[in-house]
Amino acid sequence: MSGTGAKRGRPPAFDRATALEAATRLFWEHGYEATSVGELTRVMGIKPGSLYAAFGDKKSLFEEVVHAYGRSPAGAFAGAALREEPTAREAFGRILREAAAFYPGPGHPPGCLTISAATNVTVQDAGVAAFLRDLRNANLAAFEARLETARREGELPATADPRALAAYFAAVIQGMSQRARDGATAAELTETAELALAAWPRTGT
Question: Which sequence positions fall in the DNA-binding region (predicted)?
């Protein structure tokens, strides 16, 4: 008796991971600005009070979504390739080919959440755009660092520009994300990936 009385008035429990997954899909598909708290609570299966209690405000929820996405296969493949591949060329080849497979892949909205979720935000939400921009710039810095190492070790010619090359590959990857959202297939994006790799600077003759 006393046990049931202690539970009276408590909100129903929810699976945080499942709720976060539902929020991720909504933000990924519609973007930050177009996603309302009402839509979030509907797909997450919780009431607004529970959302604020569990995640904070909409911005805090979005940041948690993005960090969780960054640990998922769809968000972590670039960093994994940079760490695991023995050469920079193999790393960037893997990144481009996996982007071609992931971005239009089934089971999730097309493209990359970090690239597309805050392309248009109001002035009051400029911090959200800056948050994603900082993450993308951190990826760009990781690209440049890997390419700088490749030049220092002789994998790239001494005349290669790691900064420009990193910016080039980042631009290709961001474009592939948008092309996936526009309906490009994995085969089409793979062609783009191979064309991008053809620009890799060669050493020697």
Answer: 36-55
d(CA 73, CA 63): 18
20 token code pair: 């976060």
Q: What is the pLDDT of residues 74-102, one digit of tens each?
A: 899 999 999 999 999 999 999 999 999 99
- Per-residue pLDDT reduced to its tens digit, 160-192: 999 999 999 999 999 999 999 999 999 999 999
**Mean pLDDT, to the nearest integer, of 67-71?**
93
Report the candidate in 85, 79, 117 with the shortest Cα–Cα distance to residue 99: 79
Instruction: Enumerate long-range contacts of 185-193, CB under 8 Å, 24 or more apart.
Output: 185/104, 186/100, 186/101, 186/104, 186/105, 189/99, 189/100, 189/101, 189/103, 189/104, 190/97, 190/100, 190/101, 192/96, 192/100, 193/93, 193/96, 193/97, 193/99, 193/100
Quick one: tokens of 106? 């089934």
What is the value of pTM for the model shown? 0.87
Per the structure, the count of domains in the chain is 2
Does residue 116 fall inside a structural domain? yes
Which residue is listed with tokens 């904070």?
A: 56
To which residue do tokens 């020697």 refer? 204
Q: Can you give the CATH number for the domain in which 61 is found? A: 1.10.10.60
pLDDT at residue 11 tops 70:
no
- Asked if 176 contacts 92 with a C-beta cutoff of 8 angstroms, the reply is no
CB 61 within 8 A of CB 40: yes
